[in-house]
Design goal:
The complex is a heterodimer of chains A (368) and B (314). Chain A is built from 21 helices and two strands. In chain A, helix 13 crosses helix 15, helix 17 packs across helix 18 and helix 20 runs antiparallel to helix 21. Chain A is mostly helical. In chain B, 69% of the residues lie in helices and 0% in strands. Chain B is built from 19 helices and no strands. In chain B, helix 9 packs antiparallel against helix 10, helix 14 packs across helix 15 and helix 15 packs across helix 17. The two termini of chain B are 17 Å apart. The chains are: A mainly alpha (368), B mainly alpha (314). At the A-B interface, helix 10, helix 11, helix 12 and helix 14 of A face helix 8, helix 9, helix 10 and helix 12 of B.
């Protein structure tokens, strides 16, 4: 939310220009992190205390770039300036990016930017989502996420995640829940709605009912590691993309997870680098391999991405999703993986990047 | 619907076990006794007998059977005695391992079972073979058949009655378009046949008939030697008219030179507790001869006895 806070007056017009990308318009203004500039507030020449108040309020309303809303600060803001609408008006005039005097000039108001309303709605909803999702049955959660992704045509990351990081019986449970909720099977909807190159991989992954035993065949692992390598090598010249390669889809969608991990290990031994590195051109495929190989590592990356400055709506929603869905399974492993990869405790990172009840909820979920 | 006849007062499980054990004793084997017990017990009863037998005699009943009886009779008795889910798993594994384009067991298991039964078969497959069914099918089946069979066995179809009629119309159109272009292994055909629910598929096939004047299978007969087309037709028939489909399998198994005992055993053991009665009626209607008589004519001795018993003879 830095960009909201560092905008100057001229930028408010940019806020109303048509979006060039699916991400919210205002994100086009990638203003660098700098001190909040109260210059416009100085125009009204409020006393220094007023400027501080404004800053506090701005921070409370805009969340300072983190996720969630600082409810306490907001409450104290609401209690302020009772019977002083002019002060509120000044606040609005100084809070560019969220309120636009020019856009509302016709009606004599500083009107709310629609972007800002959506942003606030999303930020307020984080705590509610975390609570509801926490209470929901894991299968229903997964089914609803899958349905949402398919019907809003979001990137299929969630599908890959659900299909590859859940145990076989949990994936099946999610498929059953999907049928109960939507009267169609998950495979049907994935096959019907995903029309790009990733279709056959995704259908295969969500349909899988993998053997869960520990039996691993080293010979098979070697054979399939070699087959994957051959597919990777021939991909640039092939008629279809690597993600459509039948061999690749077959191996990733049917083999048991222990078997796949052995295959990935052999691949690393044979080629000196992990398979993911060779899949840079196919994000869906790479995600699938990461999820199958080591869910904690994958999840810690997703969490870290939610904190970054240019995280989009889906990346931020992923924080709630990951923490709530893994609380009962491999949260400890995720904490370890996060510490190893980013040199910081997960709880600290969450505390730093989130606000209010949302922050408290997440910290409670993460646990000690 | 089922032809299995169970006596109105079933002996205690312990007594059944004792009788079976007696049947194995001594020099020969009392096949008639085996049939009189096992061929007249339902799945739950057979399961109880197997458990009790292992407890009392310390040996798996199926292992004991395998030691005493042989050949097609053994196969029929063992397949029959297994739980339906295990039976499907065994049949699927057999076919996957030495798969050929004319194979029907996998398609039948995927399409002539409820989604819950197919899933139970996949679980049984895990337990028995320490691999998933999809793995083995994917590893042993090749070409277009693999593109068709892997999703076919992986699907966990919606089991309810909800149907989207406009979708049925549009997908019937899509099927017709692809079939017209002879693109039989097109992704859309595979997608529709391997993911849509049974209710939705029936609506789609009905819409096909309404829109184009004849049944979809008629358009899939372009090349009588094309096994892929034959498999597509089998899939469709398993959904629309399983009893007539199985009647044909039996008719072909019995007809001509020799008898396809594997197919005969497969159909009779897998349908005796489901719809073998309907299949018998279809057979009588089509061939003017009761199925028991046709089976008795083409099979002999103990093998004949168990098939006829499962067909509901006294």
């Amino acid at each position: 939310m830095q960009q909201f806070l560092t905008q100057t007056g001229s930028n408010s017009s940019a806020a109303t220009s048509p979006p060039a990308s699916p991400q919210p318009r205002l994100r086009q203004q990638q203003a660098p992190r700098k001190e909040r500039d109260p210059q416009n507030k100085e125009k009204e020449a409020p006393p220094a205390a007023m400027a501080d108040e404004h800053q506090d309020l701005t921070r409370a309303f805009a969340g300072l770039g983190g996720l969630g809303v600082d409810e306490t600060a907001l409450v104290s803001a609401l209690g302020r300036w009772r019977r002083q609408p002019e002060k509120r008006a000044q606040f609005r005039r100084g809070f560019l990016g969220f309120f636009s005097a020019s856009a509302g000039a016709v009606a004599g108001i500083e009107r709310c930017e629609d972007e800002y309303l959506l942003h606030l709605k999303a930020e307020f909803a984080r705590f509610k989502d975390a609570a509801v999702l926490w209470a929901m049955h894991p299968w229903e959660r997964d089914a609803r996420w899958a349905h949402h992704v398919l019907h809003k045509a979001h990137p299929p990351q969630v599908l890959v995640e659900v299909a590859c990081t859940r145990a076989a019986d949990d994936l099946l449970g999610a498929r059953r829940a999907y049928q109960a909720l939507y009267h169609r099977s998950l495979e049907e909807d994935v096959a019907y709605r995903v029309r790009d190159a990733n279709a056959s991989l995704l259908v295969g992954l969500v349909s899988a009912y993998r053997y869960e035993g520990a039996c691993v065949s080293e010979d098979l692992a070697t054979e399939e590691a070699k087959a994957l390598a051959a597919a990777v090598r021939s991909a640039p010249a092939a008629a279809t993309k690597l993600v459509q390669n039948e061999q690749v889809v077959r191996v990733l969608a049917t083999r048991s997870k222990p078997q796949l991990r052995a295959t990935f290990r052999v691949y690393m031994e044979l080629h000196g680098k992990p398979l993911e590195e060779d899949l840079a051109a196919e994000p869906c495929l790479r995600e699938a391999v990461k999820c199958l190989d080591s869910p904690p590592k994958y999840f810690s990356e997703v969490i870290s991405r939610a904190f970054s400055d240019d995280a989009d709506r889906q990346a931020k929603a992923a924080l709630t999703r990951v923490l709530v869905s893994r609380a009962d399974t491999d949260m400890e492993d995720i904490k370890d993986a996060y510490a190893r990869q980013y040199g910081a405790k997960l709880a600290d990172a969450v505390a730093k990047n989130t606000h209010g009840h949302y922050k408290d909820a997440l910290l409670a979920i993460i646990g000690k | 619907m089922a032809t299995l006849t169970v006596p109105s007062s079933v002996p205690a499980v312990a007594e059944d076990c004792e009788q079976l054990h007696k049947a194995f004793e001594g020099w020969g084997t009392n096949e008639k006794l085996i049939i009189s017990i096992l061929a007249h017990r339902n799945a739950a009863q057979r399961r109880a007998i197997r458990r009790a037998y292992a407890d009392v005699y310390g040996k798996e009943l199926l292992r004991a059977l395998g030691d005493e009886i042989h050949g097609k009779f053994e196969r029929a008795v063992i397949l029959w005695t297994l739980d339906p889910a295990e039976r499907d798993a065994v049949l699927a594994n057999e076919e996957a391992k030495k798969w050929h384009p004319g194979g029907r067991a996998l398609v039948e298991i995927a399409c002539a079972r409820t989604p819950a039964q197919l899933f139970a078969a996949k679980q049984a497959y895990h337990d028995r073979f320490k691999r998933s069914l999809e793995e083995d099918v994917a590893a042993h089946v090749t070409g277009d058949f693999r593109k068709l069979l892997v999703p076919l066995v992986s699907a966990y179809r919606y089991d309810g009655p909800e149907v989207n009629t406009s979708l049925a119309h549009s997908e019937a159109k899509i099927l017709h378009e692809k079939i017209d272009k002879k693109a039989y292994s097109d992704e859309e055909i595979i997608r529709i046949l391997t993911t849509r629910s049974k209710a939705q598929l029936l609506a789609t096939f009905n819409s096909y008939k309404d829109q184009f004047g004849h049944a979809i299978n008629k358009d899939l007969k372009a090349d009588p030697k094309d096994e892929f087309l034959a498999t597509l037709r089998v899939i469709i028939r398993c959904f629309t008219c399983p009893d007539r489909y199985f009647e044909k399998v039996i008719r072909l198994a019995l007809g001509g030179v020799g008898t396809d005992e594997d197919a005969l055993t497969r159909v009779i053991t897998t349908r005796a507790e489901v719809d073998l009665k309907l299949i018998k009626e279809a057979y009588q209607k089509r061939n003017s001869v009761p199925l028991e008589r046709a089976v008795a004519k083409d099979t002999t001795r103990d093998y004949e006895d168990i098939l006829v018993a499962l067909l509901g003879a006294e």
